[in-house]
Amino acid sequence: MHDTHSKGIIGEFEFVTHLLKKGYTVLTPVNPNSSYDLVVEMEGGFQRIQIKYCTPKNGTLRIELDRPMRKTKYYKDRDVDMMGAYDSLNDKFYLIPIQNIPSNRRFYLRVEKPNSAQEKLIHWATDYEI
Question: Coil, strand or helix: which one is 98?
Answer without folding.
Answer: helix
